[in-house]
Amino acid sequence: MSLILLIFFFAGFVKGVIGLGLPTLSMGLLTIIMPPAIAASLLIIPSLVTNLWQLIIGGKFLYLIKRFYLFIIAIFAGTIFSPLPSLSSTSVWVFPALGMVLIIYGLVAMFFPKSLISSKQEKWLSPLIGYITGAITAATGVFVIPAVPYLQSLNLNKNELVQTLGLAFTVSTVALATQLTLDDKSEPINYYLSTIALIPAIVGMYVGQYCRNLISEKIFRCCFFLGLIGLGSSMLFK
């Protein structure tokens, strides 16, 4: 139990510093000590609450809903109707796939420069990226690929990007909770333990937000993504 709380504190701390990473880091560490489906169920409440918090901070909620409604619908559809094996599957594919997702995300974030996407490209890319993100979410419990690199390539200012990430992560969390509930093979979601995990996640976010002003975010992001690559490599080749 204490190890689970420590993991959520650390994941919340990372989210507080760089604005993302709670579900990714939580899943990566929790799946070392428990099955992926159970790990995903534990992050439902912490992820939902912290992402809603991130979403409501800012004044462009309606604008972002109007701009990204196809993206949102596609995330939900991809999660519920994913062609990939679900988290509850006993296939050995699930665990190394999560490791691969962590490696890809770390490499993309570290080495690929941002490239702007035009409004014409956005119209057809948003539903495509949303569906792929949803499918990967259903299989791994991780929301970031390819949604985060895609959103970072759009012409969004800092506040819009943070709020849009909160929107995407909130929808992904709700969709994942729905998918786990509908999956007959999946264990029931432990909302009690998930709610308890919210406490260290929020404390971690507060601490991370405080530390953001004391350390170089650039250096921290570099260390964080290197850590993701190392964790993903361990999971992939274990």
Give a quick summary of the entry:
This is Probable membrane transporter protein. With 238 residues, the chain is mainly alpha-helical.
Structural summary, described in words:
Helix content is 76%, strand content 0%. The chain is mainly alpha-helical and 238 residues long. It has one domain (1-236). Helix 1 (2-18) packs antiparallel against helix 2 and helix 4 (44-56) packs across helix 10. The model has no long low-confidence stretch (mean pLDDT 85). The chain crosses the membrane at residues 29-56, 68-87, 93-112, 124-148, 189-207, 219-237. It is a multi-pass membrane protein. InterPro entries: TM_pro_TauE-like (IPR002781), TSUP (IPR052017).
Topology:
Elements: H1 2-18, H2 22-30, H3 36-42, H4 44-56, H5 61-80, H6 94-111, H7 119-140, H8 147-152, H9 158-182, H10 191-212, H11 217-237
Helix pairs in contact: 1-2, 1-10, 4-9, 4-10, 5-7, 5-9, 6-11, 7-9
